[in-house]
Write a structure and sequence with these properties.
Elements (H helix, E strand, L loop, with lengths): L1 H10 L1 E9 L10 E4 L4 E4 L5 E6 L4 E5 L6 E4 L9 E5 L17 H9 L26 H4 L2 H6 L1 H9 L1 H25 L2 H8 L3 H11 L3 H6 L2 H20 L1
Parallel strand pairs: 1-7
Antiparallel strand pairs: 1-4, 2-3, 2-5, 5-6
Pfam family, one: CarbopepD_reg_2
Protein name: Carboxypeptidase-like regulatory domain-containing protein
InterPro entries: CarboxyPept-like_regulatory
């Protein structure tokens, strides 16, 4: 047993280096340094320097808010000298915005809040992405189903009366509604309504409010049916304006 432990210790050496900003070459302070192969963790100091045990072939990942998360495979030369690694900033470039014909402050805020930047998070090539699974116990219909309450009376009482479980379901409903809003705003956009009706400016804004569609209707109804209804309402809208 002692011989095995001695062999492992000989294979592992400290990797010593400095982490810098790839653009400014300034030290990156207090970044997380993780050896994914051994689950060992450290942080860079105020000068960007770090020291972590590793063997050749170990994966060492560097991460900190404001920078891209990157991983390197430890090489033999890393064990013989101090190394320098550069971490790129995680910059977000927004499309140009032309400030004109903004209908209302509320719609402008909604577009900004619903903007989804590109995911720049680190992931290993060849590994499948995680898939979120729906938890049936977060659905009110499941826990209030008479069949479930009859076959799982104790669990039904817990899920129906537990404050913690109620808060979980409430949070789940909020997230689900946010996802629904994102789908609707991507589907039923101001630009699309303009293409269908040829309305512009305040007249387009007034028409959208005139239609007063619910989120549930816009989410579940095919776009071609919404288009037909829009054209029917457009005739009524113009008649009411003339009246």
């Amino acid at each position: 047993m002692s011989l095995v432990l001695k062999t492992v210790a000989q294979d592992e050496h400290p990797v010593i280096g400095v982490l810098v900003d790839s653009a400014t070459r300034q030290p990156v302070q207090f970044a997380h340094v993780t050896n994914y192969s051994t689950n060992q963790l450290t942080v860079t100091n105020a000068q960007g320097r770090f020291r972590i045990p590793a063997s050749v072939g170990d994966t060492i990942v560097f991460s900190i808010v404001g920078y891209q998360t990157l991983g390197w495979i430890a090489r033999q030369e890393w064990l013989d000298q101090e190394i320098s690694l550069a971490l790129p900033q995680d910059t977000l470039l927004l499309n140009d915005v032309i400030v004109q014909n903004i209908p209302t402050e509320e719609i402008f805020k909604r577009k900004i809040l619903n903007y989804q930047p590109e995911d720049t998070s680190f992931w290993y090539h060849g590994m499948p992405l995680p898939v979120a699974k729906e938890d049936p116990m977060l659905n009110e219909k499941t826990i209030k189903n008479p069949l479930y309450m009859a076959t799982h009376p104790l669990s039904a009482m817990y899920y129906n009366f537990s404050k913690q479980e109620k808060e979980k379901r409430k949070y789940h409903r909020v997230i689900q509604n946010e996802h629904r809003e994102q789908r609707v705003y991507a589907k039923f956009s101001r630009e699309w309504v303009h293409e269908v009706t040829a309305l512009e400016g305040n007249e387009l804004t007034d028409f959208i409010f005139y239609c007063d569609y619910s989120l549930d209707y816009l989410d579940k109804t095919p776009l071609y049916l919404i288009r037909e209804d829009l054209l029917a309402k457009l005739t009524e809208f113009k008649r009411d304006q003339r009246g």
